[in-house]
Every structure is written in C-alpha cells, then in structure tokens.
Design brief:
CATH class of the largest domain: Alpha Beta
Number of helices: 19
Radius of gyration: 23 Å
Number of strands: 12
Largest sheet: 8 strands, mixed
CATH topology of the largest domain: Rossmann fold
Number of domains: 3
Oligomer: single chain
Strand content: 5-15%
Shape: globular
Distance between the termini: 72 Å
Length: 409
Amino acid sequence: MKDASRIQAIIETLEQIFDDKFPADNILDKYFKDRRYIGSKDRRFIADNVWKIIRQRMHLTEAFGGIISARLFTALHFIDDDLDLLFNGEDYAPYPLSKDEKILLDKAKLFEDFSECACFECPQWLFDKIHNPQLIDALNATAPVDVRANLVNREHAKERLKKEGLFFSFTPLSPIGLRSHDRINLNNCMTYQDGEIEVMDEASQLISLLCRVKPFHKTIDYCAGAGGKSLAIGALLQNEGLIWAHDINQERLSRIKRRAERLDILNIKTIQKVQDTDYTRFIIDAPCSGSGTWRRTPDAKYRLSQQRLDELCQIQAEILDFGATHTAPNGRLIYITCSVLPDENEQQIEAFLKRHPEFEPVNHCNLWKDTLDISIFPFDCEKWLKFSPLRTQTDGFFFCALQKKAFTE
C-alpha cells in the first residue's frame, strides 16, 4: 500500500471506532478480513497507529476544542510527516486538508492546557469513581503477552517457544505462566497450535489456581463465556474430575468445544439449565465493565456509561443470589470480575453478605500462601484480592471466595 492509502485506512477504522458502538479490535478484524489484499506489514502499521491514536483520544479531543474527528486526529498524529503528500486526494488516499483544517491543526499542535482527566486519558465520571490516578495511569500502559502452559510444564513450553524464535520469561507470580513484552502473533506458532500454551493474563491464571478445584468437587463455571477459566481448571486437574460450563450466550459457550479440542481438555461439559443446589465450587466470572482490561481495550472506557454500569451491577447481584442458592453447605461461591470499579467489586460483596449471612469470605492471605507457596502477599485486604497493573503487574481483576456455612440458624 502507498503511505497515503495507509492513512486513509487508519481514518476509516477510527471513524467506526469513534461511534463507540463496537470494540475496536472487532472493527479492525473485520476491516482486514474484508480487505485480504492488505499485506501483513501494512496491517501492522495500520493497527499500531490506530491503537496509538485511541490511547490519546482525550488529549486529542481537548486539543481540538472538543471535536472528535478521525481525520484531524490522524493528521495531528502524523504532523511531522509531509501532510500534503499523505492527504493528496488520489485514489485510496484522504482528500487534501482544507485551510480551516490546517488552522485547527496549528492550534492543536500548540495546545497545552489539558485537564487532569485528559492527562490520564480517563472520562471524568470514571476518573472520580476509581479515585486513584496512579492506577488509572497504569491501566493506560500497553499490556504484555501472557500465556499459560497447558498439560505441560512451563519450562518445556518456554524452550519450545524459544526454538520457534519466541522469547518468553516466567511470570513472577503464576507457576504456570510465561510472559513476553514483545508483540507476538501466535497464529503460526506450533507450540500454540499443538495446544501446549494458551493466551491468558497472569491474574486470570492465578485466579484459576485460587479456585482450589479438586477432581472430587462438583464444580460449575456459571458465566463461562468462551471457557477460559474452565479450560485452565481442566488442565490443572490433568483432565480428572468434571467441570460444568454454563453461559447465557450459547454462541459464546459453543467456542469451548473448539478450544478444548486444540488443548486436549476432556473434562468439561456444557449445561444450559442449572438446577442442582449442591455445587461445592460455584464459580461466577461475572459480566462486568471490563475496566481492568483497559491496557488491552483502551476504547472500552468510552463505550461505558453510568446507566450500563448500573445494569451490570444489578445483573451481578442477581447472579450472586442465584449462586448462593445453588452452593452446597461447606461449598464455595467464587465471585470474579475483570474490573477495578468498587461498585462491581467490594461494594457488591458487602451488599451480598448483608443479604446472605450464611456466607463469609475465606482468609485470602492464607488461601494465597497455601495455594501458591509464595511468602509475599501483594494485597492490603484478606477479605478479597484486587489485582491490578499497579499492584501485581497484571490486568485488573477482583477475586472473592465465599464459604457457605455448614449449618444456618
């Protein structure tokens, strides 16, 4: 592709992304699938710069006086290049910049009076809710690539990846994880295709371990989605026992079968209707804002609203209540989100415990140390665990294991 055509592609994808209707990665995937003639180097250039512009969205919006414009944002992003050459009006190229656009660009280039929210690239209402600038700043960084070893030890997986020219280090906390700070495409990686590794953030790996599922447990992954934690737990059990996987979205749930075949996981069964009330591990990976994954999905914060957050909190409370009635005495109800928002995390648990005094949080410090054999406890509370790029160098996750009392008054 010519340089100008690349710029036009960036503008076209950003125009769709700034509608705030669909995830940016989905938009990019569809854009490239519809244009298979675009080569790998061009795809990488387009995608890299789209993500860079998304990560500067609030800066760019304020610099242009509140205007959200894919065209102007792209022009400012490439301001040090020859804009007359890039915006030349030829076939598959952006039309030339107008006089008014050039005036706006000159002003934006010199703009310095950014708000605190723009400096941290976070909408005001979310900035106030999180109330931790350091955490917000950490969520703006680019995330590494984390994978877990599957049915093999991670030393073996690391060496096999090295032979393919892919260099990973051990994750600092998870005993099954590997990490790379380089951008890596695993589609052509034989270690991945053969099912010896699976992409999974280190926090999610740790949470799978902390569920402490045993082969004799009656276990359900109630909000399984595409089955990431079910598959991880299945591998940790070395295909012993049985994990029931449920999700309201049947299309998403159906992906488990394909993933399980590649990973050679045999101990997962899907279930459409949950009726039994004697689960010893009732795992809820709850639908949430996804605020803990902003390092990977920086566009998501602009699709979130207070109304949507309220809806999610209501859904979470209903799922927790449902899980409470389906957890066996002495069993554990496990609540997980990939969120850093208190509304979805500790506030949700505190409200649940008032409704359900038959439950109490386990001592998470003991759970952590007993499970992982790690002396350090990188958290400030024993009632639950709050992972974050600031505290654990992972995505933001919340984990709380609630024990159901054997007898209730």
